[in-house]
Structure formats: C-alpha cells, structure tokens
From TrEMBL:
Monomer. One of its GO terms (molecular function) is prostaglandin-D synthase activity. This is Prostaglandin-H2 D-isomerase. The keyword Phosphoprotein does not apply. Belongs to the calycin superfamily. Lipocalin family. PROSITE patterns: LIPOCALIN (PS00213). Residues 43-183 form the Lipocalin/cytosolic fatty-acid binding domain. It comes from Myodes glareolus. Its EC number is 5.3.99.2.
Length: 191
C-alpha cells in the first residue's frame, strides 16, 4: 500500500496520471495541442484539477491539495517538472523527468519505483492560462491507468476553464464523481 501511495504521489505531483478503464474502440486519447510549442509551456503551473476513476483516488480526493509545478527543459529535449506540495503538514518537493516522443506535446514518464511507463499528452493549452493533460499507462495485467489534469497559471481558475476541464474529462469516460478541483493549501505553494 505504501508503494502504491508513493507511485500515486509521484504522478499526482505533476497532476499527470491515468487510472483504470480501457480505451474504447475508435477513441483517440493521444491527441495533442496542434503546433505544440514547448518553450511556451515552460514555467510555473498549478495542478488545479484532477480526474481519475481509480478507487484510491476516489477515497483520497477530498484530502488532496493543489501543488505548484515548475516546468523546465531537460537536457534531452524533454521536460523536468519540479513539484512542491503539502504532505502530512510538511512541504515536499519532487522532480520528475518526461522524455520526449516523436510527437511534440507528447511525453513518456517511467516510474522509478514501479518501472511502469506512462504516456503524457498536452491535449490543449493556451499557454498563458490553462493546459489540459491526459495520461495513461499500465502497471501490469488489468491495471491500466488513466487521468486528466488541469494545469492553471494561477491558483484561481475561471468557471469556464473548470467547465472545459469537466467536459474534457467526461469525454474520456470519467464521471462527475471522478473529478475534483483542488484547493490551494495554506502553505508550500505561495510565492
């Protein structure tokens, strides 16, 4: 259970992961922002919304908080994500590396703990306000991961952006009860 919690926290830090559900025939979940410009995606983001149909996520979503993630280029043309978050009343920071794929806006994350591979796509962004991300992967037979994430440049998210995230998540088969908008904690992510 502790190992599962560590995997989840590592991916939630980014707000990037996807949990159970198999891809419906004909659905394309690997779409990315047209003409994705990685340099415009860099900088500070807040994980403002998450959606997943994982039972662990459903149990814990009421105690999760927003985290701050600084996205920087990595040496291999991928991304380094440095996330700061509140955990057990302590501020923690984790660094994750997303490897680039052949498609701009699509990356691969390899969990150091599980060795599992996750596809991470920036599906839509206007770069200066929000980004919608989709992640999926597997840990083993019957253990497919799916998650959508709402990144925001600010801690306050406009209702129209929340509505866009909700529609995006539902279009990927997630339900209203799978979606949570994360409140900012009282410490750790302030400037």
């Amino acid at each position: 259970m502790a190992a599962l919690h560590m995997l989840w926290m590592g991916l939630v830090l980014l707000g990037l992961l996807g949990f159970p559900q198999t891809q419906a025939e004909g659905e394309n979940h690997d779409s990315v922002q047209p003409n994705f410009q990685q340099d415009k995606f860099l900088g500070r983001w807040y994980s403002a919304g998450l959606a997943s149909n994982s039972s662990w996520f459903r149990e814990k979503k009421t105690v999760l908080f927003m985290c701050k993630t600084v996205v920087a280029p990595s040496t291999d043309s991928g991304l380094n994500l440095t996330s700061t978050f509140l955990r057990k009343n302590q501020c923690e920071t984790k660094i994750m590396v997303l490897q680039p794929s052949a498609v701009p806006g699509q990356y691969t994350y390899i969990s150091p703990h599980w060795g599992s591979v996750h596809s991470v796509s920036v599906v839509e962004t206007n770069y200066n306000e929000y980004a919608l991300l989709f992640s999926r992967g597997t840990k083993g037979p019957g253990q497919d991961f799916r998650m959508t994430t709402l990144y925001s440049r600010t801690q306050t998210v406009k209702d129209k952006v929340k509505e866009k995230f909700t529609a995006f998540s539902k279009a990927l088969g997630l339900t209203e009860e799978d979606i949570v908008f994360l409140p900012p904690p009282d410490k750790c992510i302030q400037e």
